[in-house]
């Protein structure tokens, strides 16, 4: 999990938002995060692969229940790795 991953998850959860990568990037920057659009686009895909974000048919991402568990420190890296196998 990278610093960018945490910023994306925390931002979406804190503001209870569903956003596509472009507006997510813009809003992260407006709130003081220095994360480029290409990084956000890459990170949301990775977070979705791990089940921490879900994407709807319109390309909007939101934090999943599993993502909330991660943010609440109720899930650790080993839990993410076991699902990849």
TrEMBL record:
InterPro entries: RNase_R_HTH_12, WH-like_DNA-bd_sf, WH_DNA-bd_sf. Residues 8-68 form the Ribonuclease R winged-helix domain. SUPFAM superfamilies: Winged helix' DNA-binding domain. Coiled coil: none annotated. This is Winged-helix domain-containing protein. It comes from Halobaculum halobium.
